[in-house]
C-alpha cells in the first residue's frame, strides 16, 4: 500500500480479496502496510485490483506456470524422439539444412551428419521468411523428402509447423514438430500441437522472457502433450554485430526452474558460421542436452541461412571437438 | 573486401555476381575495394556470398520492401473502414474493451465511446493470452455481440484474428481485421488476410524493427490487400517500469518510409491507465492518424487488461483534451 | 519461501531478520509462506539473505530512492536557472549547437534561438566522443565563448561537465551543469556536482531504468543540491532505424514517481533532424517541462551531430508550432 | 542516392566529397546510384553530408577503430600482469570479493583462491554503487589491504579506478587497473589510464556494442597503453530473470575482430551464484582467456553482491571442473 493509504482503503482491498475467495494476510511495517494475497491462482485476479485507491504496487510472488515447473516435478524429464532420448547426461545433436531444397542435397547432408554423429535430421519444409520475396520452402514435397531421408539413413526427422491446419500433415511425416521463434506465442498452434503426443521442439521467442517461454510450454503440457523440449536460439538485443544474442544464462536457469530438457541452436543464436563452433562448445559446457546446427554441403548456394550454415567439413571438425568435450564432462552422446 | 583481399578473390566475386545475372561495379579505395552489386532483387542473393574468401562485410543498400515504400507511392494512402477514412489530416479514435465479456458491458461501452467521439469499436473475441489459465475470449459468440453493437450504434467494429482458419468467419462479422503483435510474423495468417479486401490493422511485433513491420505489410500488399493500417503499440526494452516502451519515433519515421497510415495504441504501449492520457496526446502531436484505446466501464472487474483500461469518465476527459489539441493542430476528427 | 521450505528454514530467516534490527511478519498461504521484512532501509540487507536455504525469491517492495520521490515531496519542484523557472505549467526551450565550434557560429546561433523563443543556450565545450579520432571540443575556450554569448544575448547557458576535477571551472562559466548520458552513473562526478548549488541537467543513461535515473538524482539531492532537472534523451533498444528510442512513457511516469521537473531531448532521442519536430511536439503534449534541441546554422558543416541538428529556419518553424500547441494546452513558454 | 535523385544532386555530393580531400566513386545501378567515398578517415565526415538533398542513406564500410583491430595486428596480444600472461592458449582466473571489507576476510579469501588455482586477486576499494545509501567501499585503505594480501600470498591484484584523479594512487597499489562497466565511456578516465603503462581490465559497458567497446580500447591504445584486456560481463536486455545477459557470442566475435585478449565475468553476467559455475565452463569452452569470479567466505554477510558470490567451497568445486575442462581442451591454466 502507499505510505498514506487509509484504513478504509486497506479494508476495501481486504473485502475484495475475500469476495474472490482468496485470503488476505496483512503485515503492518514501519514504512508501509503489505497485504499478502493467497489462494489458488491468486495471480490471475491481479488486474481486478489495479484501479483501487491506496495501492502502491502489486507484486506477483508465485510463478504462473505449474506443470512446467521444477516444483511440480523434481526429476528431469526425458523426451524420446525415434530411438533417441533427449535429457540429462546425454547430448543429442540435431543437424541438417535450414530448408529442404532438393533430394540430392538433403540426402548428401543426411548421410554426412549421420556419419559425423548427429542423431536427428532437421530441415525446413514450411519456412517463415521475413520477406515475401524470398524462398518460402517446398511445403509437403519437402516433408516427403525428409521421410525418404529417414527411411534411407534411419535418422529421426524434425521439421517446423507454422499453422494449426498443417499440424496433422506435418505430424504424419516427422518424428518431432518444431515450433519456431515467431510462433512461440501462436496459441492456436500451441493448442493444436498440444493435442497430439508428437515430441515438440519449442523454440524461445526472440523477445520472450524465460517465464513466457515456460508459459508457452505450459500450453502444450496442459493440453496433454508431455514431450516438450525447449530450445534457446538467441534473443533480440541492441547488439547487431551478431544476428541475435545467444542467452547462455538461460540454459542453467531453465534447468533450475523446469524439469524439461533444454537444447541450444547456435546457428540462429549467432547468425555467423564462424561463431557456431565456439558457441556450440559453450552450450555443451553450460549443460545443454542437445544442439541444433544448420549444415549445408554448399552454404554459398543455400536458398536460406547460408551465412550461418556449416559446411560438412566444418561440421565434422566441430563434432570431433564436441566428442572430446563430452568425454571430459562425462556426457554421453545420443 | 578485406584490406588484404587478393585480385583473385575479387575476380571470383565478380564472376559469381555475373553468374547471378547481376552487375558488379568496383571501387578501389585507399583502404579497401568495394564491390557494388546492382540488379533487380540483388539483396536476396546476399547469403550466396557469405562464405566467399576476401569479403570484409556485406552491406545492404536497397530497402527490401517495395509496395509499402514511400518511393513506390508518394501520396499518403487513405484506408476506408465503414464510414470512416483513416489517413492524413484526420484522427480516428478506435475504443472499446480489451475483451468482449458480455452483451451488457459491450453495449454500455459502445454507446459511451460513441458519445465521446470514437468512430470505431474495438473488442477481442479470440484472445492471445500468455498463460493457458486465463480467460481466452468468447470466440464467435463475441463476434456476434460485436455485430449487434454495430447494428445498434452504427460504429464500425475491429477485432483480432489469430489463425488462418478463422479469417473467413471473423471477416464476416467485422469491418477491420486486427493482426496482433504476437502474429505480426505469422506468415500463413498474413497470406490469408492478404487474399481478402478487408481493412487490416497490423500491429507492430513487440520486438520487430520498423523494417520487419513494413515487410509484414508487404506480405499483405503483395497478396492484393491494399487496405493496411499500421499500429505502433510499444516495443520490448530493458525498461520494465512500463509494460512496453511506446516508440514515438516510429510515428514520423514510418510516415517518411511508407505511404500507409499509422495509428498508436497507448494502452498496450504503456500498460498503465494513468499514462494513457499523456501518451495519447503525444501520439496525436507526433502525427498519428488514429488511436486505439482500451475502455471498460469497470476496469477493476475486467477479465483482461484492467490495469491499462480507462474508465468511461477518464475516456470522456481524454477525448475533450484530444479535441482541443486537434483543433490547435488543424486535424479533423473522423 | 519455496513450496517445500521447512519450519526450521523459516525460523532461521526470521532469526536473521531480527538480528539485523528488522521485523519479520509471516503470512502462511495455500501455496507458500511469505515473510515480509520491514524496517528502515530493509532493502539494503537483501543480499544477506540470498544464500539462505528455503527461499524461493526475494522481492523488493519499497522504492530505494527517497528525496527524489513524490511520496517524500508532493508538490512539483521548480528549478530556477538564470531568470528562467523550469517546472509545471511552463515550457523552457534550451537550444544551441552540439559543440561550441567558434565564436562566430555560436553568436549567430545564440541570437537566432533567442529570437525564436529559446530561453537558455546549450553548447558543448568538453565533448564525450565515442571515437578518439573525432573532434573532442574546445575545452575552457568553449566555456569562455559561452560566457560571452550570455553577456551579449542575456541567455543563460548550459554545458556538460565530464570529470569531477572540472566541476569547479565549468561551474564558474555556466548557469546549469549538464551531466551526460554516459556519466549518469559516474558517482564521483555526481558527488562533486552534488556539493555545489548549481542547477543540474541530469540526462538519463542510455540503458538506465527510470529507477536508476532517480537513484542518480538521489546522489545529487542527498549531497545537498536540490536544483535537479531530469532529461529523457532516448534509450538503447533493438531498433536501430533511429539513433535511440525516445521513451515518451517516461515523461508522465517520472512525473508520477518524482517531484523533479523532466524535459526531453528529441535531437539525441531520434538522431535524425527530420524527426525532431514531431517528437518535440509529442514531448510537450506528454507533459515535458522543457526541450533540449540542437540547432546549427550549417548542420552540413557541423563538427558533431550534424545529422540531428536543425537549421535555424527549421527551428523557427518548429517554435511556431510549439507556441500554437502551448496555447492550446495552456502552457506558458518560459 | 534516392531513386529519384537528380544529376545535379549527385554532382553536388561529388563536389563536396572532393572538397574534403576524399575520392568519390560512382556506381550507377538498375535501381539507384551508389557513391563510394574513399580516403583516410572518410567516416568522420559522414555528418557533413546528412542534410544534402537526394541522399537515401549513408552506410559506413570501414571499422572506426584501427589499433585494436585484427587487421592492424594479426597475432594475438599477450598482456603480462605480475607473473601472469593473459592471452591465447591459457586461462587466467581472477577471483576475490566484490568489495574489500576488512583485512581478515580479504586474507582468508586470498589464500583460499590461491590454493584453488586463481592467479590474480580482485577486490573493490572504490565502489560504484547505484544507490547513495549503500556501502561505497573502503577507498585507499582498501588498496593498502590489497597490497598486503599481495605481499603475503604473491597474487597480483586487480582493483577498479573510477575517477581520473585517482588513477595515480590506485596504480601505485595494484597490478592491474579495472575500468568498470559504468565507466567504459568515461573518456577523461580512459585518457588518464591510457597515459600509464599499467595493465587495464576494460569491462564492456552494459549497453555498449562490441564496436563501442573496441573504440574505448582504442582510446587506451592510442594514448600509448598497449596492455589492454577486454572483459565481457553481461549486457542489459529485456530479460530480467538474470541480472544481465552474458553475451557469449562476443567472446569468439571479439577474437575475430581484435587481437586483444578477452575474459569473462560470470558473476555480474548472471547475478546469481548458482549460474556462475555452468556459465564459467561455457566461457572457457567458447575461448575466453580468463575468468573474473566473485568469491566471499560468507556471501550471506557480504556488503555487496552477495547474491552472485561463490562460497570458497563452491569455488573449489568449480576450479576442479575448470581444470578438467582445460585439460580436455589443451588449455594451460596461468
Keywords summarizing the entry:
alpha/beta, Alpha-Beta Plaits, TIM Barrel, 13 strands, 17% strand
Q: Within the CATH hierarchy, at the fold level, what is the topology of the largest domain in chain A?
A: TIM Barrel
Strand content of chain A: 15-25%
Q: Count of helical segments of chain A? A: 10
Count of the domains of chain A: 2
Helicity of chain A, as a percent range = 25-40%
The biggest chain-chain interface is: A-B, 51 and 51 residues
Overall mean pLDDT score of chain A? Answer: 92
Give the overall shape of chain A. elongated
What structural class should be given to the helix and strand makeup of chain A? Answer: alpha/beta
Tell me, what is the CATH class of the largest domain in chain A? Alpha Beta
Question: In terms of per-residue confidence, which ranges of chain A show pLDDT below 50 for 5 or more consecutive residues?
Answer: none
Number of beta strands of chain A: 13
CATH homologous superfamily descriptor of the largest domain in chain A: Aldolase class I
Q: What is the CATH architecture assignment of the largest domain in chain A?
A: Alpha-Beta Barrel
Radius of gyration of chain A: 23 Å
Distance between the termini of chain A: 54 Å
Name the assembly state. homotetramer
Order of helices and strands of chain A: HEEEEEHEHEHEHEHEHEHHEHE
User: Sheet bearing the most strands of chain A, described?
Assistant: 9 strands, parallel
Amino acid at each position: 500500500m502507499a505510505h498514506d493509504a487509509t484504513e478504509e482503503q486497506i479494508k476495501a482491498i481486504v473485502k475484495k480479496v475475500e469476495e474472490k475467495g482468496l485470503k488476505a494476510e496483512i503485515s503492518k511495517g514501519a514504512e508501509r502496510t503489505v497485504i499478502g494475497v493467497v489462494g489458488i491462482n491468486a495471480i490471475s485476479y491481479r488486474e481486478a485490483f489495479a484501479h483501487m485507491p491506496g495501492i502502491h504496487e502489486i507484486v506477483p510472488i508465485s510463478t504462473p506456470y505449474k506443470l512446467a515447473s521444477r516444483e511440480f516435478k523434481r526429476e528431469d524429464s526425458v523426451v524420446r524422439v525415434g530411438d533417441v532420448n533427449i535429457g540429462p547426461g546425454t547430448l543429442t545433436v540435431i543437424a541438417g539444412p535450414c530448408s529442404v531444397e532438393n533430394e540430392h542435397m538433403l540426402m548428401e547432408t543426411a548421410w554426412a551428419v549421420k556419419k559425423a554423429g548427429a542423431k536427428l535430421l532437421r530441415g525446413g519444409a514450411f519456412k517463415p521468411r521475413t520477406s515475401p520475396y524470398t524462398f518460402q520452402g517446398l511445403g509437403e514435397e519437402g516433408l516427403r523428402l525428409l521421410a525418404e531421408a529417414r527411411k534411407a539413413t534411419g535418422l529421426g526427422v524434425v521439421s517446423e509447423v507454422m499453422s494449426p491446419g498443417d499440424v496433422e500433415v506435418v505430424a504424419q511425416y516427422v518424428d518431432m514438430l518444431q515450433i519456431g521463434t515467431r510462433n512461440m506465442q501462436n496459441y492456436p498452434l500451441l493448442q493444436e500441437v498440444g493435442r497430439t503426443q508428437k515430441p515438440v521442439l519449442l523454440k524461445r521467442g526472440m523477445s520472450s522472457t524465460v517465464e513466457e517461454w515456460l508459459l508457452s510450454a505450459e500450453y502444450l503440457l496442459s493440453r496433454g502433450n508431455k514431450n516438450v523440449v525447449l530450445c534457446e536460439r538467441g534473443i533480440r538485443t541492441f547488439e547487431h554485430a551478431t544476428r541475435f544474442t545467444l542467452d547462455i544464462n538461460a540454459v542453467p536457469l531453465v534447468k533450475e526452474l523446469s524439469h524439461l530438457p533444454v537444447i541450444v541452436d547456435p546457428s540462429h543464436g549467432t547468425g555467423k558460421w564462424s561463431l557456431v563452433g565456439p558457441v556450440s562448445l559453450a552450450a555443451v559446457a553450460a549443460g545443454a542436452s542437445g544442439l541444433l546446427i544448420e549444415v549445408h554441403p554448399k552454404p554459398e548456394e543455400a536458398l536460406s541461412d547460408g551465412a550461418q550454415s556449416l559446411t560438412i567439413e566444418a561440421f565434422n571438425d566441430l563434432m570431433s571437438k564436441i566428442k572430446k568435450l563430452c568425454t571430459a564432462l562425462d556426457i554421453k552422446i545420443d
